[in-house]
Amino acid sequence: MKKQILTLAFALCATYGYSQNTFPTSGNVGVGTSAPINKLDVVLLGNFIIGPNLSTTNMAYFGQRDLVLGGQTATNTGMYIQRLRYPLSNPGVSTKLLTTSADTPTAYAEFNAPKTTNTTRASVSFGHNNVELMRINTDGKVRIGNGLNDIKTPDGYTLFVEEGILTEKVKVAVKTTANWADYVFAEDYKLMPLTEVEQFTKNNKHLPNVPSAKQMVENGLDVAQMDAKLMEKVEELTLYLIEQNKQIELLKTEIKTLKEQKQ
Predict the structure, then answer these.
(1) Which helix (H) or strand (E) holds 119?
(2) What are the entry keywords (predicted)?
(3) Strand order in 159-161's β-sheet?
(4) Which among 42, 58, 57, 101 is positioned nearest to 77, based on CA atoms?
(5) Which of 102, 120, 116, 54 has the alpha carbon at shortest distance from 81?
(6) DSSP state for residue 147 in the 8-state scheme
(7) Where are the beta strands (DSSP E) in the chain?
C-alpha cells in the first residue's frame, strides 16, 4: 500500500511539475491583494521587479540577463523604472526611466525632477550617468547644457543652449512689416542731416538708433532686430547717396553753364 501511495505521489509530481500556470478565463487576478479591480492588479510594498534577479531600491526592471558561461558574471541590459522622493527642502516625487548596460544605468529621462536655483520643476529632463543634459520646465522654458552649471534661461526667451549652436541654416521669422526697415522710404520719414550724424557719432561712438557695445554685452544680440537696424542704415545710406547724386548733377549743370558763359 505504501509503495502504491509513493508511486502515485511521484506520478502527480511529474504531471504537475511540467504543467504551466493557469488563470481563470473570467475575473481579475491579484498579486499582493485579495480584491483585484483590474485584469491584473499588483500591489506590493517595496521593490517591484520584473525580469532577472535584481535588488535595486525602488526600481522595476524590464530587460534581459546575459547567459552565464564559463564562470562569467551575468549582467543586465534593459530599462529601470525608478520612483524618487526628494527631501523637504525641495519636496516632490519623480519617476525616472534609466537604460542600463552591464548593470550600470546610463541614459535617463526623468519626469517631475525638482526645481533648481535657476529653474522651475521639470516636466521632463534628460541626462547621462546622473548628469542632467537637457530640461523642459513646467513654465515651458528649455535648457540644453550641463545641468551642474545650473544656467538660467533668460527672461523673455524660451530656449537656452550652453556653448552655442552650430547649424547649416537659420531662418528668423519677422513678426510684422513694421519690424522691418522699409519705413525709411516713407514720405514722412525724417532723415537725420549728415552734420547731426557726425556730431552724434563723435559724442556717442556709435550710429544713431543702433545699440552701443555696452548694451550688446548687457542685453545680447537680437538677430531679427539687429538685421532690421542694419537694413535701416543701408536704406538711409541709399537716400544720402541719392541726395548727393542730385547735388552733383546740379553742380555739373551749373559748371557747364558757367563754362558756356565764358566762351
Answers:
(1) none
(2) Signal
(3) 59-65, 76-86, 92-101, 104-111, 122-128, 131-137, 142-144, 159-161
(4) 101
(5) 54
(6) G
(7) 29-31, 40-42, 59-65, 76-86, 92-101, 104-111, 122-128, 131-137, 142-144, 159-161
| 231 secondary structure, DSSP code | H
Q: What are the cell numbers at 136?
A: 523642459
Please tell me the distance from the alpha carbon of residue 115 to that of residue 135, in angstroms, as a whole number: 10
Contacts 24+ apart (CB under 8 A), 30-36: none
Buried b (16+ CB within 10 A) or exposed e, 106-120: eebebebbbebeebe
* Amino acid letter for position 175: K
Please determine, for residue 88, whether its predicted confidence score (pLDDT) is greater than 80.
Answer: no
Amino acid sitting at position 180:
W
Q: What ranges do the domains of the chain cover?
A: 171-263
Name the β-bridge partners of 76. 65
Spatial distance between the Cα atoms of 5 and 7, rounded to a whole number of angstroms: 5
State pLDDT tens for residues 101-124: 766 668 999 999 999 999 999 999
* Identity of the residue numbered 103: D
For residue 201, which amino acid is it?
A: T
3-state helix, strand, coil in the chain (%, to 5): 30, 25, 45
Q: Residue 30: is it exposed, middle or buried by C-beta count within 10 angstroms (0-12/13-18/19+)?
A: middle
C-alpha atoms less than 13 angstroms from C-alpha of 199 in its C-beta half-sphere: 5
Residues in the chain: 263
Q: Compute CA 3 distance to the chain's CA centroid, rounded to the nearest angstrom.
A: 74
